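Lay summary. Proteins are chains of building blocks that fold into shapes, and those shapes determine what they do. In this project we predict the shape from the chain. Here is one chain we studied, written as its sequence of building blocks.
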Amino acid sequence: MEKVGLGLRFSFMEDVLNGSQKPDWFEIAPENWMSRGGKMFDILEKIRADIPIVCHGLSLSIGSPDDLDFIFLKELKQFLDYFEIDVYSEHLSFSSLDNGYLYDLFPVPFTEDRVKHISKKIKIVQDVLERKLILENISYYFKFDGEMEEVDFINQVLEEGNCELLLDINNVYVNSMNHNYDPVKFIKNINKEKVAYYHIAGHEKFDDLLIDTHGAQVNSQVFNLLEIVLEEIGEKPTLLERDNNIPPYEQLFEEYEKLKEFVENAKVY
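And here is the predicted shape, written in a compact code that computers can read:
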């Protein structure tokens, strides 16, 4: 990965294929493609031949007390191998329970027990996929009673699981506002050596709650936090996420170019 990427969505794939506006790299959710064929799969193959692609998963559910789904992992590895995709990230959360899918990403308790449980599963996933697992800090709107702060929990999982971090800057900001903590302190305390790349996205406010919708432009507060991240941690590949209220591709690419210009002009020490 280099510089700045964009989440690839079905709504503008033909615009990418037929146009001249292309990002440095794309990110896709493998679950949307693993059982797909036909025209859209053909378009993905053509895009992949020209532009690097990384994968950001949705259903690994690494934090669930359930066992890993080895059928899913086998299919995932086949997909990653087919497209020669080396970068695979997921969420530090759980999305399944008692073998049922919950259709959302839920936080796990910040406890030593969960660190050990998740770390064991990470090592298995990495062995099966033959790739380093990259985990993302999620946005959350409630939290379980825990034994440590979120940043300490994340750092322990990264260390004991021997994996890397996808630092979602919008999620840090949203959580800091909803749960009343200092986002800069969070950034300063995260294990910088483990950060693989960044996500940035827009959020929306509903009453007194910020929601990580990926449905709006990135606002100035999140850009300010990105600047602090670049100063504290350094330049890493950065992805613009947009999943809802997706504008026409030409307009979306203007948002992408704004982010790319910001990253390239930021003072990195």
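What the prediction tells us: The first helix runs from residue 13 to 18.
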